[in-house]
Amino acid sequence: MITGFVRFGRLLPLAVAGGLFVLTAGTPVPASARGPEGIADTAEKVIDAVVNISTSQTLKNRDRDEDAAPKKNGREKGDPRLPPDSPFNELFDEFFKNRRGDKSPQQHKVNSLGSGFIIDTDGFVVTNNHVIADADEINVILNDGSKIKAELIGRDKKSDLAVLKFQPPEKKLTAVKFGDSDKLRLGEWVVAIGNPFSLGGTVTAGIVSARNRDINSGPYDNYIQTDAAINRGNSGGPLFNLEGEVVGVNTAIISPSGGSIGIGFAVPSNTVVGIVNQLRQYKEVRRGWLGVRIQQVTDEIADSLGIKPPRGALVAGVDDKGPAKPAGIEAGDVIISFDGKAIREMKDLPRAVADAPVGKNVDVVFIRKGKEETRKVTLGRLDDGEKLAEASLKVPEPEVEKTVTQKALGLDLASLGKDLRTRYKIKEKVKGVVIVGVDRNSDAAERRLSAGDVIVEVAQEAVNSPADVKTRIDKLKKDGKKSVLLQVSNGEGELRFVALSVD
């Protein structure tokens, strides 16, 4: 059995029963086990720049109508149930009687605490948006205990960041600078300072466990993972390198209990800087817009397109009013570079586009039919309603009588006539071959193809009849191809790509 205590996010063994060694209180702990000596110096230098964020929100109690809530034994539904002989019955009966008799709305305040840090001696503070969301009043509490009212300058829900401003006191403030989060190395020591569990300024330390983490919290996830203890109340606080530079903003943890288990996430400083600058300048974030819908390049899709190794973002559709359209980018192109940044996987593209300035002319490099091409695109501005997620895979599968004219790859195919357009609610702009049935045991069923889907292209060539599909597939088999790439549309005209095995 091992017992121990947590120091800097590490469990140090005190004793091992029946083991080969015993570490007692009299045994000196090696310096390497305590972490680098610079942690204390770093904390001392920057701790005055870390602030607590105190917020309050006024909530109105929901009106209770005595006749609207079912009662049992004279009590409202939801009132505490006590044994008949309980000495507290009289007390609770009087309490609920008085409560039901007062129909006036009641108000109460909810207070919460988070963390933040000063980036400018004029009183600008960075924190998480969820720390101050829906707050009626925001106060900044300095390290010396001074409490000053703050105003919200701007917020960005997608990155969960916010900028506040307060009037500085007479004494000079301590402000911190941002470092380069791209230079962080795995295993590098970092220091987190914040207000966990509302206990006041607290310093913890650990290492960078991973970078570029996607925790599915938003479209631009790119978190630093650290094992430095981050608990409730640390949200919005800074993550420092040992130079005293902010390399991240502590935002989320994974924990079944709400306490640290050594898995914390911080927004990288290189992301924070651009967003903070825009919030200070515009009070909002203005992101670039390319105007494409994209899919992940799976191994099967990469094989069918001859892309080795699999990489990039597959363009599933192009917005008719978006910047990509006049630049000549088409569905089926695989974008491998944007504005000089390599696109290794699908999620890299939305981040790169969002970080680029609106109106900038950028180079977009893509692969089309095995050849690399480069186009200049003038970026537009992303509106909140724009969809940059991957193509939807949810398509209705109506129960209808099948009209089979050809079978291929586990699919029942038919020519797209007027009757089938009406049956499957397929718009006139959609051209191709309609699927009227799918073999449940086929690769097509696993890829979620369903009745009502329309095959627009096979191996990047348009098809107009079931015979065209069969001919293309037979040729691919003859050429030794292991998979075939289909461009598929739903009834609304939204496109996606599906790779199916030809075996």
From TrEMBL:
EC number(s) per entry: 3.4.21.107
Domain named PDZ: residues: 279-346
Basic and acidic residues composition-biased segments: 60-82
Keywords assigned: Hydrolase, Periplasm, Protease, Repeat, Serine protease, Signal, Stress response
SMART domains: PDZ (SM00228)
Cellular component GO terms, alphabetical: periplasmic space
GO MF, one annotated term: serine-type endopeptidase activity
Reaction(s) this enzyme catalyzes, per UniProt: Acts on substrates that are at least partially unfolded. The cleavage site P1 residue is normally between a pair of hydrophobic residues, such as Val-|-Val
Top EC class, one word: hydrolase
Residue ranges of the region described as Disordered: 58-87
PROSITE patterns in the record: PDZ
GO BP annotations listed: proteolysis
KW Protease (keyword) present: yes
NCBIfam families: degP_htrA_DO
Family membership: Belongs to the peptidase S1C family.
PANTHER family: PERIPLASMIC SERINE ENDOPROTEASE DEGP-LIKE-RELATED (PTHR22939:SF130), SERINE PROTEASE FAMILY S1C HTRA-RELATED (PTHR22939)
UniProt protein name: Probable periplasmic serine endoprotease DegP-like
Organism: Afipia carboxidovorans (strain ATCC 49405 / DSM 1227 / KCTC 32145 / OM5) (Oligotropha carboxidovorans)
